[in-house]
């Protein structure tokens, strides 16, 4: 908490005007200090209009950050890009289009969005009948993507046409969940004008219940009422081997007892292993390590799939045997994990059940 104390003292001194350097535009009240605060968390909230680690930079916060159409050149002062005006640069200029003839919205410089019933670049014309629905160039679109593909990766382009003119023939695209499969639309985004589908975020394959995402894509025209068409997107997600086998239930060095006179095929222990990948990447082969002693191999075997270790002969060789278990997945770039256990073969007069019980419940 030393850093926290220093940070707070710096804040307090700044309020008393005892610090030299840039003027700090911090608020009049001290910020709340939390027990787990770090220096960053102690950074004072800046007065409106200021930003930066010590609030030394001016901003155009109350000007909506210049609406993305200008530069903040002084405190709460925007210099607008060409075609934009007003204090916050949020007003587009459509004087070249007769200000949309007062029958539409100027949504960008020299770009009108006409109200229902009006059409044309300056919205001066009446909107005719919407005669035709959009038509996709395919009813199904397919693509494949790795679960490691990054945000912004382009997946495919959809395309539709509309035989009408003006607003009635102007198409925009939308993604629509396929029934209850809303998860697909959370990973994808479509450019409403170009129809390009891109990744909104990487797809975690092990969070999906199926390896193919299904989603509808709509093409919607600007008619009143509008007409639309639908096509189906099939996004096949390829699993990447990003998980290694993991051992469960057993600690490294755990000891397992079996009596030397046990029958052949007596279970000594079952090694539980999981792998969160899919297909071959999630398939697991369990084996003894290559270095396993011959006496272990002569007395025991491990089932590659179930992980069950059982006796091969009777009687068994008495002794304490360290055994390294290897779990390897089936990927082309396989991942392996190892676990050390000890198998102890007991003389005939000692019951392994009693030893296991005493280890689990020490008195
Ligand atoms: Ca149309
Ligand atoms: Ca794996
Ligand atoms: Ca995976």
From TrEMBL:
Pfam families to which the protein is assigned, alphabetical: Cadherin (PF00028)
Membrane topology: Single-pass membrane protein
Keyword Thylakoid recorded: no
Keyword list, A-Z: Calcium, Disulfide bond, EGF-like domain, Glycoprotein, Membrane, Repeat, Transmembrane, Transmembrane helix
GO molecular function: calcium ion binding
CDD domains recorded: Cadherin_repeat (cd11304)
Disulphides: 114-123
Chief subcellular location: membrane
Presence of keyword DNA-binding: no
Domain Cadherin span(s) in chain numbering: 137-247
GO CC annotation, single: plasma membrane
SUPFAM superfamilies linked: Cadherin-like
Residue ranges of every copy of the EGF-like domain listed in the record: 90-124
Signal peptide: none
UniProt-annotated location(s): Membrane
Gene Ontology biological process terms, A to Z: homophilic cell adhesion via plasma membrane adhesion molecules
The protein's name in its UniProt record: Uncharacterized protein
Organism annotation: Ridgeia piscesae
């Amino acid at each position: 908490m030393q850093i926290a104390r220093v940070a707070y003292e710096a804040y307090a001194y700044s309020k008393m005007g005892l610090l030299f350097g840039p003027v700090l535009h911090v608020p009049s009240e001290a910020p709340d200090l939390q027990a787990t605060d770090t220096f960053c968390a102690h950074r004072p909230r800046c007065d409106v209009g200021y930003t930066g680690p010590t609030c030394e930079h001016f901003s155009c916060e109350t000007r909506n950050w210049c609406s993305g159409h200008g530069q903040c050149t002084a405190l709460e002062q925007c210099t607008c890009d060409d075609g934009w005006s007003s204090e916050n640069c949020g007003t587009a200029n459509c004087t070249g289009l007769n200000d949309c003839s007062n029958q539409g919205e100027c949504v960008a410089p020299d770009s009108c969005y006409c109200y229902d019933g009006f059409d044309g670049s300056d919205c001066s014309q009446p909107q005719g009948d919407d005669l035709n629905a959009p038509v996709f160039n395919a009813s199904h679109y397919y693509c494949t993507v790795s679960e490691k593909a990054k945000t912004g990766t382009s997946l495919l382009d959809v395309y539709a046409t509309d035989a009408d003119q003006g607003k009635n023939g102007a198409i925009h695209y939308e993604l629509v969940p396929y029934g209850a499969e809303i998860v697909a639309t959370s990973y994808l985004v479509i450019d409403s004008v170009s129809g390009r589908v891109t990744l909104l975020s990487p797809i975690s394959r092990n969070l999906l219940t199926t390896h193919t995402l299904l989603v509808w894509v709509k093409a919607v025209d600007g008619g009143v009422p509008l007409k639309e068409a639908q096509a189906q997107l099939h996004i096949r997600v390829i699993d990447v081997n990003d998980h290694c086998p993991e051992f469960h239930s057993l600690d490294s060095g755990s000891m397992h007892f079996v009596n030397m006179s046990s029958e052949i095929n007596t279970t000594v222990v079952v090694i539980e292993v999981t792998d969160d990948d899919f297909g071959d990447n999630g398939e697991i082969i369990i084996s003894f390590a290559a270095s396993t002693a011959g006496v272990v191999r002569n007395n025991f075997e491990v089932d590659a799939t179930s992980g069950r270790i059982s006796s091969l002969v009777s009687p068994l060789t008495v002794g304490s045997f360290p055994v390294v278990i290897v779990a390897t997945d089936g990927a082309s770039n396989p991942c392996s994990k190892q676990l050390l256990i000890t198998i102890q073969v007991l003389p005939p007069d000692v019951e392994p059940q009693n030893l296991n019980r005493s280890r689990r419940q020490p008195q």
